[in-house]
Design a protein that fits this description.
- By secondary structure, the protein is an alpha/beta fold.
- Helices cover 44% and strands 19% of the residues.
- The chain folds into 2 domains: 134 residues, HUPs (Rossmann fold, 3-Layer(aba) Sandwich); 139 residues, 3-Layer(aba) Sandwich (Rossmann fold), CATH 3.40.50.
- It has 11 helices and 10 strands.
- About 12% of the residues have low confidence.
């Protein structure tokens, strides 16, 4: 996270996206990065209101939105918010493409769906995580928050999660925040031979929680040695149950204000049945979520 030079913000006049811009401002001060507000016009949304729309109609819509955005996001404090960018296309793809062109970017977007809604269709935030090549910061539908003081990083000991753990450690060092790690094991013990979870296929006739906990502790030891993590300063925990629910519950218990997660869930069975843990975290977390690619 130390090389972030620009912050790309998906904005509209909706409250949650206004909050995303304010979220970007605090991160701009931390990284010394420029903020680029970006509004994406999806052609389908224009055609719904203007069935016979032409390029001229689209131009008028863009001018109107540009004026509105300029009023919503003037210069603030000691850093400058760059002139808003307006693009036409798929919101997630356009934001990802703009971030790639500008380079060294963190994308910040407000979360605008939660609960059961995301079970039926993917949100802009979820699509963005799929297309973006760099980190994505997702701000929930709530009031503005400050720089995180406590960070929780869920890990499943895969290579992808090692990267998330490294980024969480780097961010904690930059901000002086407390950092804790958690690994969640499923209560169903026949999840054997799936990436990202400890295998139960070890010939033991009766598997106990202690067996899994001891193996998780060994994995944590390897992770801490690999990343040179101070176990006294950054404690780790092992929980049992539904991963996304346990992660969110534990974040509330320790009063974390930022979750740092890997962009991919490696549990193949979970993806098949309910979607990835990351997907549920994105939509259900009550705090900021940093998704590391």
């Amino acid at each position: 996270m130390k090389n972030i030079e620009t912050i790309i913000v998906g904005v509209t006049s909706k409250k949650q996206f206004s909050l995303a811009v304010r979220e970007a401002q605090k991160l701009s001060e931390l990284f010394g990065a420029l903020i680029y507000p970006v509004h994406i016009i999806e052609p389908l949304s224009v055609k719904l209101f203007h069935p016979k729309s032409t390029d001229e109609v689209l131009d008028k819509v863009m001018i109107k939105l540009s004026d509105e955005i300029q009023r919503l996001y003037p210069d603030h404090g000691n850093h400058k918010i760059e002139a808003p960018l307006i693009s036409v296309g798929n919101t997630a793809k356009e934001l990802a493409d703009i971030a790639k062109k500008i380079g060294n970017s963190l994308i910040v977007i407000g979360r605008h769906s939660s609960g059961l809604k995301h079970m039926l269709s993917k949100s802009h935030a979820e699509r963005l995580v799929k297309y973006a090549e760099g980190p994505v910061w997702i701000h929930p539908d709530k009031a503005f928050t400050g720089i995180p003081k406590k960070i929780l990083c869920p890990v499943d000991f895969t290579t992808a999660c090692q990267k998330a753990a490294a980024e969480a450690l780097s961010f904690a060092e930059q901000t002086g925040a407390d950092l804790e790690f958690v690994h969640v094991l499923p209560e169903v013990i026949n999840y054997s031979d799936f990436d990202g979870y400890l295998s139960t296929n070890n010939g033991i006739s009766e598997i106990t929680d202690d067996v899994f906990r001891k193996e998780a502790e060994l994995q944590f030891s390897s992770l801490y040695n690999l990343l040179n993590i101070d176990v006294g300063r950054h404690p780790h925990h092992v929980r049992f149950g539904d991963p996304s629910a346990q992660i969110n519950d534990f974040a509330a218990e320790i009063k974390a204000d930022l979750l740092v997660v890997s962009s991919s869930s490696n549990h193949k069975l979970e993806k098949l049945i309910t979607g990835s843990t990351v997907r549920h975290i994105i939509h259900d977390a009550k705090i900021d979520v940093l998704v590391v690619k």
